[in-house]
Amino acid sequence: MKVFIIAAALDVIGTVLLSCDIIPSVSTSISSSSHLPSPSPFNLSTSLFELTLLSFLRFIVSSLTLLNVAYKYTKESYDDKTNMKFKNGLTKLEKDEIILEEPWKPFLLRTLTSPTFPLKTISTLSIFLVFTKAFLRLLNGVNDEICLPDLHLIIFAFIMLTLAAVAQVYIPRFTGNILDALGAEGGGDTFDGSVWEVEGFKENVRNLAIAAVACGFFSGARGSTFTVVGGRVNARLRRQLMNSLMAQDVGFFDVTKTGDITSRLCSDTTLVGDQVTLNVNVFLRSFVQAIGVLIFMFLISWELSLLAFVSVPAITIMSKWYGAYIRRLTKLTQKKLADANGIGEAAIGSMPTVKGFGAEKAELSEYDVFMDRYLQLNNKSAFAYLWYAAAITSLPQLVTALVLLYGGMLMQSGQITGGQLVSFLLYLSSLSDAFNMMGSIFSSLTMAVGAADKVFELMHRKPRVKPWKENANPDEVKVTTLRDRKDGIYPTECRGEVTLSKVEMYYPARPNRKVLDGMDFVAPPGAVVALVGPSGGGKSSVISLIQHLYEATNGTIKIDGSEVHMLAPDYLSKNVTVVSQEPTLYARSVARNIMFGLEGEDDEPTLEDIKNAARLANAHDFISNLPEGYDTEVGERGVQLSGGQKQRIAIARALVRNPKVLLLDEATSALDAESEALVQDAIDRMLGRGGEEVGNPNMGRSGEGTGMTVVVVAHRLSTVRNADKICVVKNGVIVESGRHEELIKKEGGEYKNLVARQMSANDKLEGKNK
User: Fold this and answer.
1) Which whole number is the average pLDDT over 187-209?
2) Are residues 365 and 81 in contact, defined by beta-carbon separation less than 8 angstroms?
3) Could you tell me which residues come within 8 angstroms of residue 445 by beta carbon, excluding any fewer than 6 positions away?
């Protein structure tokens, strides 16, 4: 903090010296010389010498200050312990990108992060050229759906912006006219009239006041309009990204860290939205102002105007390099922050496990590694900014000195007046401010471009699981009646026949391991089919394919003869429902969790429907005993409920939809004996194979027969012995199938061996408990 205070103090001192001492003396020299019959450049030259000297001193002060700050950062971050962490924790690619052993050589790197300090002054067109290229790259990813709805507001804001800029560029001209009017009357004892009687003085003062008021009003209208547009664009950007995430296949989330996704959705969208709207406000205002100022500067003196841009080539090259340098680093920095977010989110989300294993220190250490990497990158950006800022801070002051020197010569030769030279200096200052504004958002723009690349990559990513094939012919689909829609076909009737034919599958996260190898499987309408077998055989993969969470590598998956990738997503979600081993509940009421996905739909269940489904799931009694019954909040991920209670709510959530295909993926394997008995009884009720209140087979939300097709994945074979068909899955194929009575009689069969091993394990467990 002391270093920042010193930096700010030295900068203020330099600015005060320049503005309060030298500029008044220069103005005095110009004013006095304009009244001399034979102008002497002595006072002007003295002031110019002082200005040049102080500009050089300020450059030295700024450089030393920045170097001190960078050294402080480096001293704090590059200790032996941190360096050791980095050497052990970085991949080879990252070591190539970050030369930790030589932190004083940022120009050797390929990537860096955003600058810590604001840019001071950019008085050349180079920053505009670099900015425009990066800004167009950013806007290229924003489609019409984001900005087009507010086009009328953007046009209005641009009109206000133009009017404000026009009013502002006239202010220096009126100021110069006032000085010329006063100078024409002489000074001191030579003028004894009222200042208001000076020719041209009153008119120019009036015009100056009008221009100032108009500039303020139009600027306010511009700023408020852009603020409104900014909020709307930001919201649309977030919605569109969220829509894209909702459309992604499950395989995408298997290989993408949650921290990366939340970072894109939260911080990166805000960063991009601000650049597209709020900072475009600053950029356009400064750009229009710069254009107007340039016009008036050339009208005053084209020679002085050209002289003002002698540093364009050097700063153009520096700005272009710096922008590309920072943009590349930003991508790496965002990745480090996303990795850190992922570590933090995982630790917070599993705090009982972390504390149970005493892993707090380990999780903090892992989090610190990513934070240290972030600090290392930030330090390098400070070194890069040191040289960049030092150059662009000193050059404008030196250029101003040259303008004053040559302007004094032009004034002495009578080519311009003293008032015109003052106006030119004010215009030069205004131009410097305009490019200073563009420079202040230049660093954040380069950072936003890096973030935008990731946001737009997610927004435009096409999921591997395609809900609809554009070249599909609905006539080839063997269904009685269907509705052809953009997102797929929507049959008017679902019987619940499930067929897998020669299916092969690889998971995106494990592309070298074949999970299913030519799977053939049929579940007739209304039948109960069980999938059993050793772990890793592919049972749960069949469940995922029927839901169309993944795309099969080869083969077909059909429901009632229609391939699942041709069916509309809402048709699948309505008719195919799953109860998994670890059901997910949300921080909502019990009732809202049961009707999850149906709120606001045409077939939204009533409270009575929800209660009927809960009764069939053996959940009504315990829900009624909760503090607020069905309105009780279950907490994040259902932490207020036990495992058995969550599972029964999940079953009620499946039943309330009246599905035609019900998938049970080891729904009881993670429960204790008592909870398992209750859940199993609920499943038996649902299947019409047991329970006290079962009136008809396959009860739905209202107790009516639904004729569900049920596919059950189970490890406990006792839970599936009443199934219509049992399929033994091993190494991605079905090796045996039939009813329990048939399979148990096969000598040396896979199913009989599974039953024998399970019974032996149960006998051993019972023996230990005696």
Assistant:
1) 69
2) no
3) 131, 134, 135, 138, 275, 279
Q: Tokens for 676, please give them.
A: 């398992």
Distance between CA atoms of 167 and 584, rounded to whole angstroms?
60
Q: Which two tokens stand for residue 583?
A: 């059901």
Q: What is the CA radius of gyration of the chain?
A: 37
Q: What CA–CA distance (Å, rounded) separates 544 from 551?
A: 9
Residue whose tokens read 């000085």: 179
What is the set of domains in the chain, with CATH numbers?
A: 104-113+122-459 (1.20.1560.10), 498-769 (3.40.50.300)
Question: Is the distance from CB of 717 to CB of 754 less than 8 angstroms?
Answer: yes
* Residue written as token pair 């298997």: 254
AA identity, residue 263: S
3-state SS class at 517: strand
Is 448 in contact with 270 (CB distance < 8 Å)?
Answer: no
Q: What is the model's pLDDT at position 242?
A: 82
**For residues 522 and 604, what is the distance between their CA atoms, to the nearest angstrom?**
32
The angle at the Cα of 581, spanning 541 to 624, to the nearest 5 degrees, equals 145
- Residue-wise over 413-440: b if at least 16 C-beta within 10 A, else e? eeebbbbbbbbbbbbbbbbbbbbbbbbb
Nearest to 417 by CA among 180, 210, 218, 223: 180
Token pair belonging to 714: 């189970």
Tell me how far apart the alpha carbons of residues 239 and 140 are, in angstroms, rounded to a whole number. Answer: 18
The pLDDT value given to residue 440: 66
Cβ atoms 652, 678 nearer than 8 A: no
Residue 628, amino acid: E
Rounded CA separation 366/406 (Å): 61
Q: Cα–Cα distance between 208 and 170 in angstroms, integer?
A: 8
Q: Measuring CA to CA, which residue among 225, 229, 226, 218 is closest to residue 160?
A: 218
Cα dist. 81→69, 105, 305, 382 in Å?
A: 21, 21, 55, 21
Tell the burial category of 482 from Cβ atoms under 10 Å away from its Cβ (0-12, 13-18, 19+): buried
Whether the pTM exceeds 0.85: the reply is no
Say yes or no to pLDDT of 113 above 50.
Answer: no
Report whether 46 contacts 403 (CB < 8 A): no
Contact 376, 98 (CB under 8 A): yes
Tokens of residue 584, six digits: 């997910």
The first and second tokens of residue 649, run together, are: 């709510």
Strand partners, 510: 507
Interacting residues of 690 by C-beta distance below 8 A, sequence separation 6+: 681, 684
- Are residues 738 and 726 in contact, defined by beta-carbon separation less than 8 angstroms? yes
CA distances from 531 to 247, 375, 528, 765 (A): 29, 52, 10, 25
Lowest-confidence region among 66-80, 106-120, 328-342: 106-120
What is the average pLDDT score of the chain? Answer: 70
Residue in this structure with the two tokens 């499930």, named with its chain if needed:
498
* Amino acid present at 199: E
Classify the C-alpha dihedral 653-658-659-665 as positive or negative.
Answer: positive
- CB-based contacts of 619: which residues, under 8 Å, 6+ apart? 645, 648, 649, 651, 652, 682
